[in-house]
Amino acid sequence: MNRTLPSAFSLGLARTGIELKEFFRLRETVVFTFAFPVILLFVFGSVFDDELAPGVSFTQYFAAGMIASGIVLSSFQTLAIGIAVERDDGTLKRLRGTPMPPLAYFLGKVGLVLVTGLVQAAVLLVVGALLFGLELPTDPMRWLRFAWVFGLGAAAGTVLGIAYSSLARSSKSAAAVVSPVVIVLQFISGVFFVFTELPGWMQTLGSVFPLRWLAQGMRSVFLPEEFAAAEVSGSWQLGLTALILTAWLVIGTLLALRTFRWQRPGSR
Known about the structure:
The chain is mainly α. It is built from ten helices and two strands, in the order ααββαααααααα. It has one domain.
């Protein structure tokens, strides 16, 4: 009797459920992913209350940046560290020996990023709106903009995280290899500081990487339209944002295809 084998998509959905269960069992990871951005929002919101423009406080500016930063934490950082750990402890090698198609594994990671990224964004939006005056858009087009900025950012962060996971030689070094990169990007991308107040060379360097464009894209969603005049170019540069995030998505995909390994170098 012939049986229809489950598709890679259905296996990917099943794998997403497994990934989420494993993720929420790790208290440290959950706290860092969800609580750390909220803690930073409380700290910066309590210390800095300057008004950057009429109707726009630094806290609102920072909240938009933290939503962008949360996408990077949920995608790039989570996968770069998590996959390195799975490679080091032999999980990837065992999965590769099962009938599960490799695509299902990666779809599971995509599902993990989407769920955790959306939950984190929702938490930051609720805290920002209730405590720090972040205005939630009423225009559906703003939420459509949020969707494509979030989607492109999460996709680029996912493939870059998969590719970057190969740099860690072991699970013990994974966090040390990944976390400093994320912290530096937050400083030079307009998350912790107003981007236009950074030194020129830092703005140029930050503009190479996707977080700078993610942050500006999120500001275009949650800050008044008039604030666009305060950006570097005097506009939101949405077309350029889409182009650069797509370019990083392509670059990350090519790097992931070239560098991803199912087991540690030298292992059998």
